Amino acid sequence: VKTPRKPLELKVQVMFGVVVGAGLTGGTYVHVLADGRVLTLGSSEGLPLDEAMLTTLLESLREDWGHIRACSELLCLRLGLDELRVDWFLGDAHWGSRINELTYMGGKQADTRSLRLEDLAKVHISKLKADTFLEAHERCHAGS
């Protein structure tokens, strides 16, 4: 199976500090449940899913879903938001799973000044292998 030419983009939806699911961009009907299981429904053109894309997704989730989920939840909580979409790049052999962008989805007024560059840096450089959000939160903030 060939590796995709560019990283996949996974859009993780967080509501009130809890990941509720995620989906891939690019014309696929792939949904990632909050526990990391994957539902595949095909592509928007009715074609089968690209095997390399699906393999990359499954490998990335197996290695990094705990990290992706914990850090996405942490960012939403630290910002005090009711909703946040955290877009992640997956499948890059050098950088691994990394945040691409944050999108505030609406609701109460956000105080984005509370997000410190240090918090984002900790999310990017940490490779959390945590079983629970509390453990991930503690690892992200150890020594701060």
Overview of this structure, please?
The chain is an alpha+beta fold. The chain contains three helices and six strands; from the N terminus they run ββββαββαα. Strands 4-3-2-1-5-6 form a six-stranded antiparallel β-sheet. The protein is globular and about 40 Å long. The N and C termini lie far apart (42 Å).
Secondary structure: elements and pairs:
Elements (H helix, E strand, L loop, with lengths): L7 E8 L2 E7 L3 E5 L5 E6 L7 H29 L3 E8 L7 E7 L12 H9 L7 H8 L4
Antiparallel strand pairs: 1-2, 1-5, 2-3, 3-4, 5-6
Dominant shape:
globular
The assigned structural class equals alpha+beta
| C-alpha-based Rg, rounded | 15 Å
Mean pLDDT over the full residue set: 76
Q: What is the end-to-end distance?
A: 42 Å
Largest sheet: 6 strands, antiparallel
Report helical residue fraction: 25-40%
For the largest sheet, list the strands in their spatial order: 4-3-2-1-5-6
Order of helices and strands: EEEEHEEHH
Number of helical regions:
3
Percent range for β-strand residues: 25-35%
**Spans with pLDDT under 50 lasting ≥5 residues?**
127-133
Query: Quick one: how many beta strands?
Result: 6
